[in-house]
Amino acid sequence: MKNLFIFGLIVFLFGSFAIAQDLELPRVSQKATVSQRVGLTDVSITYSRPGVKGRAIWGGLVPYNEVWRTGANEATTISVSDDVKINGQPLPAGNYSLHTIPGKDSWTIIFNKVDKQWGSFKYDKSQDALRVDVKPQEGPNVEWMTISFPDVSGNSATVELAWEKVRVPFHIETNTVAKAMANIRKTLSGDVKDWNVFYDAADYAMNANLENKAEAMKWIDQSISLKETFWNLRLKADILAAQGKTADAIANAEKAMKLADRDAKDEPGEVTKTQKQIADWKSGAKNN
């Protein structure tokens, strides 16, 4: 009986410990995640949001010239799905902890290869993948620390940390065009029977990769061979015009107009645009 009692007590104590370990309570500095797709690259930042609460933050709660977890609780983390550039410096795809060294006139942004760590207490400089220096800016007061993507384009984005009256931005660049072109070539190497796929490839090559008109022309011809439409004929006209082949551009645009009622009846603005293009090309050809 004594042994049984002791065994039961051990089970109770270990069971109580397990329950305590699983106890989840709300944090004062709550967790947040902000994500942004930049072209074809996914960027995600997870951090905890401390509040000002009337405290002196910079040079007080957060000392100057010391490594900071960039938030509260666990160190802030950032993941990038592709190789990127941070303020012009290369950073490989992967997961990183995001530490900072605040200063009055300059901050250091640190991307450390140990992505999961509590605060910056075990931060190891030898594990840094990249460091960049940035200039802090002033702005309206922000009570709860916030990280956002205020400016985004097809191949870049600005990340901004805002807390109290300080803003700390850094710039992310992606190689969207190269990745998109690789995706196009991979897809079109298969047995594609949809004119839209070739059309989309040619449209992207024409508008985002202007040096590569030969591939754009090849893909739009393949689209037209599968099915002639207002859209692919007009795009071919645009490509020809960009190559200085105005007469051929006019011929293809006029052919496109014959299919406008079938293919573009819900896009009258595009039809009007094409009519104007034809008139402009004809006028230019006469003037030349």
Order of the strands making up the biggest sheet: 1-2-3-6-7-8
Strand content: 25-35%
Helix content: 25-40%
- SSE arrangement, N to C: HEEEEEEEEEEHHHHHHH
Instruction: Give the total of beta strands.
Output: 10
Please, could you describe this protein's structure?
- By secondary structure, the chain is an alpha+beta fold.
- The chain folds into 2 domains: about 25-175, no CATH class; about 175-285, Tetratricopeptide repeat domain (Serine Threonine Protein Phosphatase 5, Tetratricopeptide repeat).
- The protein is built from 8 helices and 10 strands.
- The strands form 2 sheets. Strands 1-2-3-6-7-8 form a 6-stranded antiparallel sheet, with no helix packed on it. Strands 5-4-10-9 form a 4-stranded antiparallel sheet, with no helix packed on it.
- Helix 2 packs antiparallel against helix 3 (about 195-210), helix 4 (about 215-225) runs antiparallel to helix 5 and helix 5 runs antiparallel to helix 6 (about 245-255).
- The longest helix has 21 residues, at about 1-20.
- The radius of gyration is 29 Å and the shape is elongated.
- It starts with a helix and ends with a helix.
- Residues about 5-15 and about 15-20 have low confidence and may be disordered.
